Amino acid sequence: MSASLGRRALAEAVGSAALVAVVVGSGIQATELTDDVGVQLLANSLATVFGLGALIALFGPVSGAHFNPVVTLAAWFTGRRTPDGLTLRDLAAYLPAQTAGAIGGAVLSDAMFAKPLVQWSTHDRSAGHLLLGESVATAGLILLIFGLTRTGRAQLAPVAVASYIGAAYWFTSSTSFANPAVTVGRAFTDTFAGIAPATVGPFIVAQLVGAVVGLGLVAAVFAHPAPDRTGAVPVQGEPELAAPATP
């Protein structure tokens, strides 16, 4: 990528903050407008779909629009032997930026809705079936992102990734966090989208397991990466190809 590491890290921080602000803020707004949990989830998922798609399109040309440590780790792993792949130095900048941005986004949402700026979530999500849902959601996300990259269709990432996350809100039991940074950020808000701090660790482990499964599926299903004949700008995934992010 042509942008400096500082600019890329800043893009990851701002994008992650905006993503969590969308997720948490829309959850707060939904609960203030209706008591119907189904309508609340619908509003939350729709806002996330539109917000995520816009953020990937905006920040993709700068940083790849990962906004997600498992995507960054997967991009580093798959591209570590290529000259334009992510380096350990990139990881050291991206991962803290994503996490700090996610926390900032949760605090910002609470501030916008006159909630306590930092209030640990009491929303327990410790059940085993929820952890399975997180593994499934993350595996599908990694399969989608790197499958698009390998088939030379990474330009579809903003729409495809946002659509997948919107669907995974409904077909997974966990409502598809699929993102360690977002999971940490959502622990800082005791609102609709929150997660109890005690549940954060197991969720992240489940996400990492899902990422490994997703990469295994990519290797099993797809051949070597196809040349990108689309002329699309990089979005998320392997640095100079294109493939995006998540909540």
Explain how this protein is built:
This protein has 247 residues and is mostly helical. Helix content is 66%, strand content 0%. Helix 4 packs parallel to helix 7 and helix 5 packs antiparallel against helix 6. It is globular, with a radius of gyration of 17 Å. About 6% of the residues have low confidence.
Shape: globular
Give the H and E element order.
HHHHHHHH
- What assembly state would you assign to the polypeptide chains in this entry? single chain
According to DSSP, the number of beta strands is 0
β-sheet strand percentage: under 5%
Distance linking N and C termini: 23 Å
Gyration radius, rounded = 17 Å
Q: Uncertain spans, ≥5 residues at pLDDT below 50?
A: 228-243
The biggest beta sheet is recorded as:
none
Percent helix: 55-70%
Number of helices: 8
Mean pLDDT across every amino acid position = 91
- Going by helix content, strand content and strand pairing, the class is mainly alpha
